[in-house]
Amino acid sequence: MAGSRHDSGAPRPTSRDVGRAAGVSQATVSLVLGDKWQGRVAERTAERVRAAARDLGYRPNLAARNLRLGRTRTALLVVPALTNEFFARVHTGAARVAARHGFGVVLYPAPDVTAPARDPFESARASLDGVLASSMASEALATIRGDELPLVMLDSDPAHSLGAATVNLDIAQGMRLAAEHLLALGHRDFLHLAADISSWTFDVRRDALRSVLHGTGATVTPARSALAVDAARTATEAALRASVARPTAVICDDDVLAAGACKAARRLGLRVPDDLSVTGFDDLTLATAVEPELTTVSLPAERFGEQGMDTLIAVLDGRTPEPQPLPVRLVVRGSTAKGPAPRR
Q: Which of these, 34, 186, 227, 329, is most buried using a 10 Å CB contact count?
């Protein structure tokens, strides 16, 4: 059918597609659609380009065009409230790459989910080239991203991402490493202290732990806590008191939760790691500030931010990046030790 529009299930048409349909160069398409063709392109040619764009359903990527013209050269990094140094490190990495490309990063800590997100600009669409967003702050995106803004999601389900691309850490491997470490030490009774946050990244931790422990004869007591030391202490105490077979190891979704678990152990008269091993996740500064120092999964936060910004630049350039999950590693410190003798 003449005048057909772009099918949302097909790849979005590009300026190169418009040029091919109109029989002109991509530069000519940019001149015409940027309304800078007068005196440089014949009127008949300009009309042919506009007709091809209409037929293909092509819409200029305003953010990419602004980047090329140097109008804003600004990206927005959307993260949870800045109570966790992990996202400060992500910002450091993202800003480093942004600087190499001559533009800056505005940091937007999303409000608590009970508060409405507000556009930090008069118009985010007019003020920004693109957005990097953590899955933990995705609720704010509907307000601030605008329909035309390229979006790259960090730590997000690739199969159901809101963005043009996703950048992930190998979170599942991190949880597998922690669980396998504890199993090798002889632990079979676990407490999983999970973050009380509805987010893909924490679902991955839970599923990976279940997968590793399946068929090992291990038991897992689940507990949930807000990402705060006192909340984690309270949740751990309650879970340990209620357990029929007391866990000998606590595997935590985050270092902050692990610090709370260590405080709970002390309040209950348990020694870490002699009576209770504890593992964290992230390798924050906190991991070496507590005593004993935490065995934890180290995440390359700065590299994560760098790859996120590299990916956004690629999206702005019209490329479709497929970055592989960044590797993580287990750092063994003093909070884990050999478990009890095997159960008979």
A: 227
